[in-house]
Amino acid sequence: MKGLSLKIVQSFFLVCISLYGSGQVKTIRIIVPEGASAVMENAARILKAQITRRANVVIVKDSSAQLTIELVNEAGGPAESYRISDKTKTHIQIAGADGPALLYGAGKLLRSSRYGRNGFIPGTWRGTASPDGKIRGIYFATHFNNFYEAAPVEDVQQYVEELALWGINQLVIHFANWQHTSFYDVEAQKTLTRFRQIMGMAKACGMKVGLLQVPNQGFKFTKNEFLNSPVPDELGRRGHFGVNLNPSNVQANKLLRENWAYLLDQFKDIGLDLMVFWPYDEGGCGCDQCWPWGARGYPKLCKELAGITEQKFPGISIVLSTWMYDTPPAGEWEGLTNFLSKGNHWLHYVMADSHEDFPGYPLRKGVPGNLPLLNFPEISMWGQGPWGGYGANPLAGRLQRLWNQTEGKVSGGFPYSEGIYEDLNKVICAQLYWDGDRQTADIVKEYIAYEYSPEVVNDVSRAIEILEANHNRKQIKADAVEALNLLQQASLQLTAQTVKSWRWRILYLRALIDREMYERGGKLEGEVLKAAFNELTEIYYAQNAHSMPIHPPVIK
């Protein structure tokens, strides 16, 4: 059944004739059973919002509706599985094994449907679906005044809802100590409040939430005697802001434990479901008692802090990242394997990834501790600077290549996101986690049909291929002109609302910028480019972005 369903969904944008014929529904009733859970009620609200945002329809509460969409719980199926079926020709039922599954089913119905000025045409996909990957996460890198930190919190909350519709079920956020002097900074407290608001929406969508933290991270103006010894970093990959603590220093260790406990307490009302420990960028200590960090100081400290975390949040999942292990070789992978061979009861997952190819050690020799393996796709920063500065950065080909390298050994992961410009890349990762046999090219087509229109799938998918081929800013080729022409042609078939949407604008502006840069020999000059960069700045809320270049280039 699952294989058949996949074939149907991959071709749904070519077959848009439903049981309801070619007529468009103008009135819809969305119902849930009495005593529905908060997540189910939220799923109904999100479904209503997405339909009314995209189509000219009226939501009614009585049986006069031309179409009824019913959400129900259905026990007995695999966790997070859903079923879409027809009770009658005018009554669609979405049944979920649990609350989050109803959102995933709602997302599937939304993506297989069509929208227009005259109403809504329900999609034809019927069947059951369940995810392969247990961990279908996303990491919001909340720092530097990027979108997650600077946009109105309501915009970020709505974005969380939209990601849930694609099957994302876990969200982690990073509290950047190094941006503050202490937890009592006014800005630090604002940040913590914002995190709880974002996490609250994620919980309302049935997501699990957590933090991604460097275990020995300090604040600004940390006492010099507490500071770490910088780690060897001849390749310039490990990062160092100069405020990390030395966990082998007794007083520094006491301070970082106190800081850790305080941070955890800020989320006692929300509840943390997972903790991701992070080794480098920012992090690490190169003293003779901690180095090699990934083999000695880091796992030892993480084990200690995991104990504190478990006490405050019993049953929490612990993830150990191995980012930049053995870059260059320092015996970190082998050292971690030896460390965990002595006991791994405190740890649930090992996470691995890199700037380039997937790390070879866990694929060749097995995961340290024989634990499930997660990935951490770099969907934001790779190969362009400033990040997102040129608009959308589709990486379907690259993500397919990296996924193929893992040979089915990955149980899920947390793509690294610096903003919304890589929205398509998030969707690709989420769908690969859901079904590892899918091809990224098919996911791109599903995204285009849903977010833009089924009528423009061919033109837009070709344009996206060109944009990825021209990812390198110094090697933009003549086909950049073709990409822009294709999107201009596609825009004539889109609704005015879609053409104005941020998802279309970041894609269109990327093609426009590429064409301008190609014709100007790579020079960032001219009023067209200036206007494009200014618009991206507005979309990203990047007017005050700082430190790292996440905002578009500025042309004076």
User: What do the pLDDT scores average to?
Assistant: 93
Spans where pLDDT lies below 50 across 5 or more residues: 1-21
**C-alpha Rg, in Å?**
24 Å
Number of helices: 18
Please state how the strands of the largest beta sheet are arranged side by side. Answer: 9-10-11-12-13-14-15-16
The shape is globular
Distance between the termini: 58 Å
Helical percentage: 25-40%
Let me know the number of strands. 17
Beta content: 5-15%
Largest sheet: 8 strands, parallel, barrel
| SS-based class | alpha/beta
Secondary structure: elements and pairs:
Layout: H1 2-10, E1 27-31, H2 38-54, E2 58-59, E3 67-73, E4 82-88, E5 91-96, H3 99-111, E6 114-116, E7 119-121, E8 127-129, E9 135-140, H4 147-150, H5 153-164, E10 170-173, H6 186-204, E11 208-213, H7 250-265, E12 274-277, H8 297-312, E13 317-321, H9 332-341, E14 349-352, H10 361-365, E15 373-375, H11 396-405, E16 410-413, E17 416-417, H12 423-434, H13 440-451, H14 457-469, H15 479-491, H16 496-500, H17 502-519, H18 527-540
Can you give me a brief rundown of this structure?
This protein is an alpha/beta fold and 556 residues long.
Could you characterize what this model shows?
By secondary structure, this protein is α/β, with parallel strands linked by helices. 39% of the residues lie in helices and 13% in strands. It contains 18 helices and 17 strands. The strands form three sheets. An eight-stranded parallel β-barrel has the order 9-10-11-12-13-14-15-16. Residues 1-21 have low confidence and may be disordered.
